[in-house]
Amino acid sequence: MRSRADAERLDAEDPLAAFRERFVLPKVIYLDGNSLGAQPVATRDRIAALSEQWATGLVRGWDEWLDAPRRAGDAVAAVIGAHPGEVICTDSVTVNLYKLAAAVHTDGAIVAQRRAFPTDRYVLEGLAEARGAELRLAAGEPDLDGAGLVVWSHVDYRSGEIADLPGITWRCREAGVPLIWDLCHSAGALPVDLATHGAELAVGCTYKYLNAGPGSPAFLYVAHARQAQLRSPIWGWFAQRDQFDMERAYDPQPGIERFLAGTPPILAVAAVEEGARLTAEAGMTALRAKSVALVELLIECLPDAVALASPSDPARRGSHVAVRHPDAERLTAQLIEADVIPDFRTPDVIRLAVTPLYTRFVDVWDAMDRLRALLPPS
Ligand SMILES: *Cc1c(COP(=O)(O)O)cnc(C)c1O
User: What is the pTM of this model?
Assistant: First the structure.
């Protein structure tokens, strides 16, 4: 096993090391950036400036704020391999998934993963019930026979396993079945390359690896080629062409703005723009390389008493790993007391996330050292 000095050397050679100073970080080892990312310094400053703009400029601020969801969307597009004008920052993942699913599903079965994140499953259960459609929950790859919609997570929220995005996208296209990717655990964690692989629809979180803060709005992606044909099931005034010409019948904007609904949370939207820009500045290729190296060190240093519950092949893992132990809940609480913050998922899983913008190799080494100290000697 590598020593702490080896971890220090990896930090000294890390080309992304300086990005850590761009965050406001308390004195803890934070391994939960896949639940809530840390606060960038630029975001703290931007929110302070916006607060001042609100205080002094009042309603005049809207001249600048109206385009904010599109600007933040363009910043996210740079991180997920989409083109400018294909991403909008609005609402939650739950609401965006509903909007896209309801827009593209006409008939046929709705197919999702059995282990999908609960909110994704609930949205699809509700839609299937309203439409009288079958909801098919798949254990493995999606079965496209009779399917009218597939919703798939790129990175599994529990195990961190990466789905075959190019392969599933190609199969759905060949079969003519609309496919929505959920990028919650991949946006900012690994390269996604939506356009390269021909993926046309996606939703994802911004408060995880994009570090935009609690409750920051999600993103919604529709490839240019599909935008004009699709209508959000929620007809809101922010989607309307000539929004302030208020007496006209509903006629949605031609571009991605047609997926807006009501007034966007401007402070939080600005935080998405800052978080995504910082990620793009570091570059997804460099971030992925460091993430893989951090996770490799973590797995190498795992105490024998905990079992890896994530794929052992680095190419099939995202930026977190799940480990199992019968006392996982107690161990998680004890780690937090020892200033190491992971998270616990019932019944016996500890999730350990590395966030290459601010996690150091010594953080990973020290966290595993503290975990080992909590376990009986093997
Ligand atoms: C975090 C997460 C969500 C969160 O949805 P919200 O509506 O933004 O709360 C949804 N799906 C997946 C897969 C997630 O990991």
Answer: 0.97
